Amino acid sequence: MIVSENYFYTVKDEFFTDYKNFLNCQFIDNKLECRPFYYPFEDRKTGLPWLIPLSTKIKTYEPKIEREVEKRGFCDGYHIIRNKDGSIYKIGGQEGVFLILKMFPITKKYLKENYYFNTVPQRLVSENHIKPIDKKCNKMINLLKRGTLTRNDVDLFGLEQALLESLRI
Questions:
Q1: Based on the number of CB atoms within 10 Å of its own CB, is 44 exposed (0-12), middle (13-18) or buried (19 or more)?
Q2: Helices (DSSP H) in 73-155: which residue ranges?
Q3: What is the mean pLDDT of each run of 10 residues along the chain (169 residues)?
Protein backbone atom coordinates (compact mmCIF):
# COMPACT_ATOMS: atom_id res chain seq x y z
CA MET A 1 0.00 0.00 0.00
CA ILE A 2 1.16 3.51 -0.79
CA VAL A 3 0.81 5.86 2.16
CA SER A 4 -0.52 9.15 0.87
CA GLU A 5 0.34 12.20 2.91
CA ASN A 6 -2.32 13.57 5.21
CA TYR A 7 -4.89 10.80 4.67
CA PHE A 8 -6.37 8.73 7.48
CA TYR A 9 -6.06 4.94 7.62
CA THR A 10 -7.37 1.85 9.34
CA VAL A 11 -5.05 -0.95 10.52
CA LYS A 12 -5.23 -4.68 9.93
CA ASP A 13 -5.92 -6.83 13.01
CA GLU A 14 -2.89 -8.88 11.94
CA PHE A 15 -0.58 -6.09 13.18
CA PHE A 16 -1.94 -6.28 16.72
CA THR A 17 -1.58 -10.08 16.67
CA ASP A 18 1.91 -10.15 15.15
CA TYR A 19 3.32 -7.54 17.53
CA LYS A 20 1.29 -8.15 20.69
CA ASN A 21 4.50 -8.64 22.69
CA PHE A 22 5.35 -4.98 22.15
CA LEU A 23 1.85 -3.56 22.65
CA ASN A 24 -0.35 -3.42 25.69
CA CYS A 25 -4.05 -4.12 25.83
CA GLN A 26 -5.03 -0.56 24.84
CA PHE A 27 -4.30 -1.48 21.23
CA ILE A 28 -5.95 -4.89 21.18
CA ASP A 29 -9.51 -3.79 20.36
CA ASN A 30 -9.22 -2.73 16.74
CA LYS A 31 -13.01 -3.02 16.25
CA LEU A 32 -12.62 -5.55 13.42
CA GLU A 33 -10.25 -3.28 11.48
CA CYS A 34 -12.76 -0.42 11.45
CA ARG A 35 -11.58 1.89 14.21
CA PRO A 36 -9.98 3.74 15.56
CA PHE A 37 -8.66 5.39 12.48
CA TYR A 38 -5.16 6.76 12.40
CA TYR A 39 -3.22 9.66 10.97
CA PRO A 40 0.27 8.74 9.64
CA PHE A 41 3.43 10.64 10.35
CA GLU A 42 6.67 9.54 8.68
CA ASP A 43 9.80 9.24 10.78
CA ARG A 44 12.33 10.65 8.31
CA LYS A 45 15.23 8.79 9.95
CA THR A 46 13.78 5.28 9.56
CA GLY A 47 11.19 5.87 6.84
CA LEU A 48 8.58 4.09 8.97
CA PRO A 49 5.16 5.63 9.31
CA TRP A 50 4.06 6.27 12.89
CA LEU A 51 0.31 6.23 13.41
CA ILE A 52 -1.53 8.66 15.62
CA PRO A 53 -4.83 7.27 16.91
CA LEU A 54 -7.82 9.58 16.79
CA SER A 55 -10.40 9.59 19.53
CA THR A 56 -13.89 11.06 19.57
CA LYS A 57 -13.71 11.42 23.37
CA ILE A 58 -13.26 15.17 23.31
CA LYS A 59 -14.67 15.58 26.84
CA THR A 60 -12.01 13.19 28.16
CA TYR A 61 -9.06 14.89 26.51
CA GLU A 62 -9.98 18.60 26.61
CA PRO A 63 -9.40 18.80 30.39
CA LYS A 64 -6.04 17.01 29.98
CA ILE A 65 -5.02 19.49 27.31
CA GLU A 66 -6.15 22.43 29.45
CA ARG A 67 -4.17 21.15 32.47
CA GLU A 68 -1.02 20.76 30.35
CA VAL A 69 -1.40 24.23 28.85
CA GLU A 70 -1.99 25.69 32.33
CA LYS A 71 1.05 23.87 33.73
CA ARG A 72 3.53 24.19 30.83
CA GLY A 73 2.04 26.71 28.44
CA PHE A 74 1.60 24.07 25.71
CA CYS A 75 0.40 20.51 25.14
CA ASP A 76 2.27 18.26 22.73
CA GLY A 77 0.69 14.94 23.74
CA TYR A 78 -2.76 15.65 22.34
CA HIS A 79 -4.06 17.90 19.60
CA ILE A 80 -7.51 19.16 18.70
CA ILE A 81 -7.91 20.98 15.40
CA ARG A 82 -10.04 24.07 15.75
CA ASN A 83 -11.78 26.06 13.06
CA LYS A 84 -11.32 29.82 12.90
CA ASP A 85 -14.53 30.29 14.91
CA GLY A 86 -13.16 28.07 17.72
CA SER A 87 -15.37 25.08 16.94
CA ILE A 88 -13.75 21.67 16.63
CA TYR A 89 -12.83 20.56 13.11
CA LYS A 90 -14.68 17.39 12.09
CA ILE A 91 -12.99 14.40 10.48
CA GLY A 92 -15.34 11.85 8.99
CA GLY A 93 -18.29 13.78 10.39
CA GLN A 94 -16.96 13.55 13.97
CA GLU A 95 -15.02 15.76 16.29
CA GLY A 96 -11.69 14.19 17.11
CA VAL A 97 -8.55 14.53 19.15
CA PHE A 98 -5.15 13.36 17.89
CA LEU A 99 -3.56 11.16 20.57
CA ILE A 100 0.04 12.03 19.70
CA LEU A 101 1.29 10.62 22.99
CA LYS A 102 -0.08 7.23 21.92
CA MET A 103 1.45 7.08 18.43
CA PHE A 104 3.36 3.99 17.37
CA PRO A 105 5.43 2.79 14.40
CA ILE A 106 4.07 0.43 11.77
CA THR A 107 4.89 -0.77 8.25
CA LYS A 108 2.75 -0.19 5.18
CA LYS A 109 2.00 -3.91 5.07
CA TYR A 110 -0.33 -3.51 8.05
CA LEU A 111 -2.31 -0.54 6.78
CA LYS A 112 -5.69 -1.80 5.66
CA GLU A 113 -7.16 1.09 3.72
CA ASN A 114 -7.99 4.75 3.79
CA TYR A 115 -10.62 5.81 6.26
CA TYR A 116 -13.76 6.74 4.31
CA PHE A 117 -16.75 8.86 5.21
CA ASN A 118 -19.65 8.92 2.73
CA THR A 119 -17.39 7.14 0.19
CA VAL A 120 -14.79 9.93 0.39
CA PRO A 121 -11.30 9.16 1.75
CA GLN A 122 -10.65 11.48 4.67
CA ARG A 123 -7.59 13.72 4.78
CA LEU A 124 -6.26 16.95 6.13
CA VAL A 125 -5.80 19.58 3.45
CA SER A 126 -4.90 22.77 5.31
CA GLU A 127 -1.26 23.44 6.17
CA ASN A 128 -2.62 25.27 9.22
CA HIS A 129 -3.92 21.89 10.42
CA ILE A 130 -0.99 19.75 9.27
CA LYS A 131 2.03 21.77 10.48
CA PRO A 132 1.18 21.79 14.22
CA ILE A 133 0.62 18.03 14.20
CA ASP A 134 3.89 17.38 12.34
CA LYS A 135 5.76 19.67 14.75
CA LYS A 136 4.33 17.89 17.80
CA CYS A 137 5.10 14.46 16.31
CA ASN A 138 8.72 15.36 15.56
CA LYS A 139 9.13 16.69 19.07
CA MET A 140 7.49 13.62 20.64
CA ILE A 141 9.64 11.14 18.70
CA ASN A 142 12.79 13.08 19.60
CA LEU A 143 11.85 13.13 23.30
CA LEU A 144 11.11 9.41 23.23
CA LYS A 145 14.35 8.56 21.41
CA ARG A 146 16.44 10.65 23.83
CA GLY A 147 14.72 8.99 26.79
CA THR A 148 13.45 12.33 28.07
CA LEU A 149 9.93 10.97 27.77
CA THR A 150 9.03 7.34 28.42
CA ARG A 151 5.97 5.23 27.87
CA ASN A 152 5.51 2.20 30.07
CA ASP A 153 2.56 0.83 28.10
CA VAL A 154 4.41 0.09 24.84
CA ASP A 155 7.93 -0.97 23.86
CA LEU A 156 8.06 1.54 20.99
CA PHE A 157 11.66 1.07 20.00
CA GLY A 158 11.55 -2.71 20.37
CA LEU A 159 8.56 -2.55 18.03
CA GLU A 160 10.38 -0.19 15.69
CA GLN A 161 13.42 -2.52 15.52
CA ALA A 162 11.20 -5.58 14.91
CA LEU A 163 9.41 -3.74 12.10
CA LEU A 164 12.69 -2.62 10.52
CA GLU A 165 14.00 -6.21 10.75
CA SER A 166 10.84 -7.48 9.03
CA LEU A 167 11.55 -5.14 6.12
CA ARG A 168 15.10 -6.51 5.73
CA ILE A 169 13.97 -10.12 5.41
A1: exposed
A2: 127-146
A3: 82 86 63 72 90 92 95 94 89 90 92 86 88 93 85 82 88
